[in-house]
Design a protein that fits this description.
This protein is 8% helix and 53% strand. It has 127 residues and is mainly beta. The protein has one domain: Beta Barrel (OB fold (Dihydrolipoamide Acetyltransferase, E2P)), CATH 2.40.50. A hairpin with a 5-residue loop joins strand 2 and strand 3.
Length: 127
């Protein structure tokens, strides 16, 4: 059976990218992406919601983010899903699904980016 783990996302950067360099010299960048979804509700009216996704990028892509990406920018992300599990301080178990960004590119966003709010407001995308 063939298996595929490929993600393509277009959204808006929701916070300033968090960048760091590890002891071995590798660079890592964490970026949050807000992705709007528009749909018609039960009354036939347009409504929407936001999906928030954490993206982690390494080395060359982390460097690209450091030099080119800021909060509020539109981005295209190509990558793969990555599942993380860890144990908290009191022994509680946690998990999170992230995207391991293999390619991230700054793109212009069109006016359709605000459709998810249902009223054309961009405030929902800039959290």
């Amino acid at each position: 059976m063939n298996r595929m783990n490929h993600v393509q996302l277009v959204g808006k950067v929701t916070f300033a990218p968090q960048l760091r360099t590890l002891k071995n010299g590798s660079k890592v960048a964490n970026v949050g992406i807000g992705i709007p979804e528009s749909y018609k509700n039960d009354k036939g009216e347009w409504s929407g919601k936001m999906h928030f996704v954490d993206v982690v990028c390494w080395n060359e892509q982390a460097q690209y983010i450091e030099q080119n990406i800021s909060k509020g920018d539109g981005v295209l992300v190509l990558g793969a899903l990555q599942y993380e599990q860890w144990e908290g301080k009191e022994g509680s178990k946690h998990s999170k699904l992230k995207v391991k960004g293999q390619k991230i590119v700054q793109i212009p966003l069109t006016d359709s980016r605000s459709e998810a709010s249902g009223n054309g407001s961009e405030e929902d995308l800039s959290t």
